[in-house]
Amino acid sequence: QVQLVESGGGLVQPGGSLRLSCATSGFTFSAYVLSWYRQAPGKERELVATSSGGSTNYADSVKGRFTISRDNAKNTVYLQMNSLKPEDTAVYYCNAKRSPLARDYWGLGTQVTVSS
Fold it and tell me: CA 58 to CA 24: how far, in whole Å?
């Protein structure tokens, strides 16, 4: 079955960096759109970054600071987060989707806390 397992979250000071990983299995990784979402307390889940084929897209709030990448050989997608801000504090979720109308697959999330 499809599995997505996030890791790499933690506590970091403002201005610091973290690299999230999402190890996947159970589907043809290279054929799927891979995305990172986040959900802060009391807020709706929001799209952070997407990797589809050779293209990437980012939320305006993270452009220039976050980078999504994927290793098709390892079936893993990454999110490099630099210049972190307190407002980046959230649970970060990995998402896989074959096409816009297909079902979503989610990981359980990893907590990122940016605080001094």
Answer: 21
